[in-house]
Input
Amino acid sequence: MVDLTIEIAGLRLKNPVITASGTFGFSQEYAPYVDLNRLGAITVKGITLLPRSGNPPPRLVETPAGILNAIGLQNPGVDYFAASILPYLSQFEVPVIVNMAGETVEEYAVLANKLSELNNIAALEVNISCPNVEKGGLQFGSDPAAAAEVTRAVKNNTSLPVIVKLSPNVTRIETVAQAVAQAGADALSLINTILGMAIDLKKRRPVLGNIFGGLSGPAIKPVALRAVWQVFEEVSLPIIGMGGIFTAQDALEFIMAGAKAVAVGTANFINPRATIDILEGIENYLRENKIKRLSDLVGAAHCKQ
Amino acid sequence: MTSYNTVNITRQDEIAPGFYLLSFKSPFSVHQAQPGQFVYLRCDNTYDPLLPRPFSIAMVDGGKNEVAILYQVVGRGTALLAQKKELDRFTVLGPLGRGFTLPPSGRLFRPKGGPKRVEPLESFPPSFLRIAVVAGGVGIAPLFFLLQRLKDLPDLTIEVLIGVRSIKQLLLATEIKSLSPQVKLHLATDDGSCGFHGSVTEILATLLKADKIDLVYACGPEAMLKIVAELLTKHNVPGEVSLERQMGCGVGACLSCVCKAKGERENSFRYRRVCKEGPVFPVQEIIWEE
Output
């Protein structure tokens, strides 16, 4: 037997495979294809204080080895989430991480407070990196001081572990990581999507209703891996690695770069069982290479031989 | 009963230049699939193109438990798919989405609010439900499967209206004619090479004006569907349309494929997922883009 358990911010996960926010809905959609109880954790679609209708379509376009999306945080709001979605999620034996976003520091604080009063939430993932909303999102994630301020506001209003999800759309991601670490973050999610765009030649207009969108998928994997590597070198917080993870090999690269856990996003669209395939692949790798504990591999690529 | 599986292609034919009919062993029971539902199918095992593509179920064979899709080669995904041969394999997720509402019987499905003025078609008693099925181009795909189911229902007549650019792009016309004597086929071509020279919506307009239609099912280009919607509103006839959108997940999780639909309050709107609440919607529900 190999030991796949990991600990992140006081949270003990039975394995390192998590779903990435926004790509797995609230998990009902994938329940026919995936045994949810086998997942390390589920990170749900981003929640805001009030319902949001999201951006005008088109919201998605395929690009080489990736997709650009500009959903714009469409979600039913925290009250609906608490009343109608959380009870569904609570029936499974899998930790639920709630991704949360706001337009102001105050909104993050109020939302953190509200979520903390609910049962069956394992951790909060603070989204300060959504590239597709006018207010909030990236404006917090690209400024170390603002990122720290949001982190502090959330920390002051919750006793849950706080994971901060960072954007790659910055000059030095390590600087933002250090700022949120000093502000009390318990863990980091790296990375959110990379800002991009596409143009429709027939219409001679941007394809997306929002003009810009966030790039995800295999195309961004090397960028995400680099971010994990850099942050691991400079910040001691546990890292959840994500960005184009499609196979167990991809996941293992992130773990060796320093991620304790991995999140699977766009891959769910191509293969709804991607999370389970990746989990089984990691397990096989450990067995074949006679590695007893997955935690022994975390950051392994940094050790000079 | 939706599932994710790898399947074998049993047959692929180019039935018109650039249009393919592809059959595969169904991983789900075809008897449980609804007309209008789709399968999310990976054209090849590549990272580029990356996403699967949604295809309406065009035909089922209950005896062999096979599904067929009908598609036009329009991009790299469909070009890759067109190269597939018998025994090649690909992954299929489905059946997905909400399909067409089948009338339980002609009598039951009559619109509420008093009987419409019923002018019976020749040879059919007035209690018959008179259906029009309106297809533009490859939009015939989900409608053929619908016809396979409608033909076995009692008490209805079916007018099939097909619009194509030219006779070369006419799809499944022979198969439709041989489905049932209840089915009457009307053709329209843009270039006048066959049938009515003009738009298929003009045929629909004539039938609606003569009060010969009680219910409409439509699939085709959005511009055509918009005209169908306007006609149905004008004549106060119910109908359902099947929409197409770029999808991400196909199962309702990613919120990429939304269309604008009427909200609960007047003059409000809400986004509906084409993959989940659709691809088939009541025609009155959709807010059509200018």
User: Anything to note?
Assistant: The longest strand of chain A covers residues 42-47.
